[in-house]
Write a structure and sequence with these properties.
Distance between the termini: 20 Å
Order of helices and strands: HHHHEHEEHHEHHHEHEHEHEHHEH
Bound molecules: coproporphyrinogen III
Structural class: alpha/beta
Low-confidence stretches: none
Mean pLDDT: 97
């Protein structure tokens, strides 16, 4: 498996590739399938449909990995945080207003409630070529906590950041709760056929530098240590989006095999400063694919050149937008496959 080799720290002669949000609304076949199950949570819990959505981009583009179709908000949903999706507005949750609200969250039956995700992984593995990796994922504790505290998406994360200053011990308690549920879910995903695990800290950029070790790196290490202590040895990719120079400490201390880099990171800097045995993943700006053409390909070349002598997984710096033309993705895939 191409991703596995790269994540073991060995440069492959052909760079493996997959894309964040490769299954999603930019694909007409996804929109058709999604229309058959309007409620997003029910859709994620419909194992055959989730498996089909997972396989769609692999069938269309022959990328090297499938990422199970699910969502980082399935854990708060299973904890009873009132997760639902409102069309055009995104996710909504029952906001946590004070530390005592954490005690209302449930840790019971999580694996029973999310059993269909395991079945979707088994179905997907059955339909996936043995050379392709199957990625299981969860959100990092901080990113998931922001949705739980804010009650949905946020522009400035004002409430979550205020919690850090006002209730840092309660924040630790919430992050540990989420990390422990994440360990159980990732273990279940690995046992159901996921051979690579990824943890999305999409809003790590909002954490003040003073708290980054405590809120970003330490909870991630709790997850990687927890997995190892349960005998789960699947490689883990961390994605601490937008943490700037703290990426060096994260790379060293989070216990990861690969690091996802967002499109603000200069890959030449990453190559020069990150351990040579650590796989880097990324980092084309997803908006370049909306425009497509020469500039998109030139920026992909710059990434490939910078990573020419290190383990690298080609990917985006964040997920595809719904406006992305599928043909531009095909151009990009052909270009990377032909890269010498
Ligand atoms: O192909 C893949 O990458 C797998 C599927 C996947 C989804 N969500 C499906 C999805 C993955 C890996 C995620 C992770 C996720 N979910 C993250 C972390 C990665 C990132 O993008 O930063 C986050 C922050 C979420 C939370 C979330 N889920 C939001 C904010 C939204 C609403 C966005 C919107 O545009 O409506 C979702 C819904 C969601 N998850 C969609 C998809 C394809 C769109 C909903 C739909 O199909 O109607």
């Amino acid at each position: 498996m191409r991703l596995q080799k790269t994540l073991s720290g060995v440069k492959d002669e052909k760079t493996p590739m997959w894309f964040m949000r490769q299954a999603g609304r930019y694909l007409p076949e996804y929109r058709a399938l999604r229309a058959s199950e309007p409620d997003f949570i029910s859709y994620c819990l419909n194992s055959p449909k989730a498996a089909e959505a997972t396989l769609q981009p692999v069938e269309r583009y022959d990328v090297d990995a499938a990422i199970i179709f699910s969502d980082i908000l399935m854990i708060p949903w299973a904890m009873g945080a009132g997760v639902h999706f409102v069309t055009g507005e995104g996710p909504k949750l029952t906001a946590l207003d004070q530390p005592s609200d954490i005690d209302r969250l449930s840790s019971e039956d999580m694996l029973t409630k999310l059993a269909p995700v395991g079945e979707a992984l088994q179905l997907t593995r059955g339909g996936l070529d043995a050379s392709k990796s199957l990625i299981g994922f969860c959100g990092a504790p901080w990113t998931v906590a922001t949705y739980m505290i804010e009650g949905g998406s946020s522009r400035d994360f004002k409430k979550s950041r205020s919690w850090l200053w006002q209730n840092p011990d309660a924040m630790d308690r919430l992050l540990d709760r989420i990390a422990d549920e994440s360990i159980r879910l990732l273990e279940m995903k690995a046992q159901s056929g996921a051979d690579v695990l990824m943890v999305f800290d999409s809003w790590a950029s909002a954490v003040p530098s003073y708290f980054q070790d405590r809120v970003v790196t330490r909870p991630m290490r709790r997850i990687t240590d927890g997995l190892k202590s349960r005998g789960i040895n699947a490689p883990v990719i961390g994605f601490p989006k937008g943490i700037g120079e703290n990426i060096l400490a994260y790379a060293e201390q989070a216990g990861i095999n690969g690091i996802g880099l967002d499109h603000s990171v200069d890959m030449r800097w990453a190559d020069a400063n990150l351990p040579k045995s650590l796989a880097v993943q990324g980092n084309l700006d997803p908006l370049s694919v909306i425009t497509g053409g020469k500039e998109m390909l030139a920026s992909a070349d710059a990434i490939m050149e910078a990573c020419a002598s290190r383990p690298h997984i080609f990917n985006l710096g964040h997920g595809f937008n719904p406006e992305t033309p599928p043909d531009h993705v095909a151009d990009l895939v052909a270009h990377i496959r032909g890269w010498e």
